[in-house]
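Hi C.,

You asked whether I'd gotten around to modeling the 170-residue construct. I have! Everything is below, sequence then structure, no commentary in between.
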Amino acid sequence: MTIFLCGFMGCGKTTVGELLAKKLGLPLIDTDAYIVREESKTIPEIFAQDGEAYFREKEAAAIRTLCDKQAVISCGGGVMLNPESAAYARKNGIVVLLDESFACCYQRIRGDSNRPIVQRSTKEELEALFQQRASIYRVHASCVIPGGGTPKEMAKRIAKAVKTAEQSAQ
């Protein structure tokens, strides 16, 4: 089973993903960490030296590479913006949207020096980006998990939703 966690920056993909992976006995693969390892550069370095378009290409390549892994995959906030990556993830696994509010996401990401988009954007610009991406995430999600819970509660909700999705696919 491959589970792709998607959603806006700061929605909890990695934190919840760690708990979910443990609960399901699967490894957690964070696409951002994967790219950092592959490139031997931090995300801010990749953005500064190679540009955002290059980073998005690396995200797409990571999804294609990781699709055949039995794992919980924490996708970077931009992965589902690429229609090919989104389709690939849907074809090869279950795409779960962590539907957290902008206010919650912003509290978690503001001032994060490891997020180039956050560093170069105002709160208003980030909220506009959040609104723009929300519908894209929904279109590609196999299931939507409402936010507002603790990471443990979210992991429990996802495990239940994934089990239901698996049963209906059989």
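If it helps when you're writing up: The first helix runs from residue 13 to 24.

Thanks,
B.
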